[in-house]
Here is the input.
Amino acid sequence: MHASTSIQTAETQDLVALATPHIQIKDLNVTIEGKRILKNINLSIPNNSVTSIIGPSGCGKTTLLKTLNRLVDDTKGVEISGSVLVNGEDIYAKDAEVTHIRKKMGLLSQKPFPLPMSIFENVAYGPRIHGERNKKLLKQIVETQLRNVGLWEEVKERLDASATRLSIGQQQRLCLARGLAVQPEIILGDESTSALDPISTQTIENLLIELKKDYTIVLVTHILRQARRVSDYILFVYNGEVVEFGKTEDVLLNPQNEITQQYVKGFIS
Amino acid sequence: MSNVKSRLRKEKIAKIAMQLSGMAITGSLFFIVGTILYKGLPYLSWEMVSQSPQGGFYIGKEGGIFNAILGSLYLATVSTALATLIGIPISIYLNMYVKSGSFLERACKLLFDVLFGIPSIVYGAIAFSIMVWIGIRASLLGGIITITLLTIPIVVRTIDELLKTIPIDLQHVTFSLGSTRWETAKMFLRYIRPGIFTAILLAFGRAIGDVAGVLLTTGFSDNLPKYIDEPSATLPLAIFFQLSSPIPEVQGRAYASALVLTFIILIIVICTHLLASKQQKHKI
Here is the structure.
């Protein structure tokens, strides 16, 4: 593992030179009920790009993603050390305001989870809690975001219908629109297409590729082909440690670490 | 093959056992309702539900139980409303603000489990001694306080169970949109709204049907309950007093009163179900 850490550090330094880091993780350790889930993570995630976190089940991918928006805070028996800097600001600093941090990061979870309200209210919920009361402006936000995710034409006649009436693919796009409505800087996706059919998956993937011009996107995926299709950078996590981080083609086609090679070739999963 | 046969036999036995217990419960219910109808219907009259006792009602003279109906409705409605207003924030606090698995959370939940199981006479006795100590006489207020205390654990534990059914994804969604805990709690309440009506119904049922808790604290009166600091009649106590009478006419009226109580509960159940089904619109 020492060898892998040195590889990771070298890769990270290259990346910093290549692009402006949006998120910097320094000496991050996460322990849940006595078990070390993430070990000494040091990483820089570049802005306006898609970074995919890959690795076998239970390696800590999702925990790593959840440390970025501090959703991990509520996990029973969790202990976190180290820092995560977003635009140079430590989100784990004592005076950091957690709701403000989370607002910056839209989350697209594994299964679409519409709020128990109408399509319109789902998208308007975020702006509303952040103080937007102007109905005209709310309507405008809802329309813009639904157009952004290509859902407007499909739902414009039934904005008052329950969001749960939508197909699962539409629901996931609605969830993306809901996340975008609070104007985040970063989009976090936790295996966001795993519950979707191939066509809906493709729609979401194309949306993410399109959205990276405005957002920094971090995805957790266990589908290597998806990582290859959508990401600019790949981070391979194994056993709670960063094994390899680099440009997609470098990590997938020419992995430097033996464990990465085995994972990419399908020997470990 | 024998394995399949034995599994199918177990399936059959389980099904029969379930059907039998279902029939036993439904049968008992029909028996109770049937008895009340059979014995009470002949004595039920408009006069009985629209008048207060005219003096000597409980020894077979003129009058009715309107004061008891009104007393019970006041008592149950106010107590249930107070228990809901106090109970929901307690449940929210224990589930969303107190650290999961902490001593405080476990201790409070255990305490509410114990309170849930304490017989209402104990609540009545304790409330009575406190009332004597601070100098309040048996009154509607005393009854409301006692029944509120009695129904808070019902609301807390029912809402607690409902909150446990909420998928963690809902919290992740609201948190990741930048919601505070309170805003998330409001979303949780929206999610479990149909279930909240069930909690209210359970509390109301317990409140309106309780005898022991009100026996010592609410007292009894032949007058309409006009003031909160005066004793008030309640339906369960009216039934109890009439049933204790040796006069057949009065005993018959007890069943008619039970019929009225059952009818009130039936109306509340129907209203609750209607309200709850309206809330299912956005159910996930």
Q: What stands out?
A: The first strand of chain A starts at residue 21 and ends at 32. Strands of chain A lie at 21-32, 35-46, 50-54, 78-86, 89-90, 105-108, 186-190, 216-220, 233-238, 241-247.
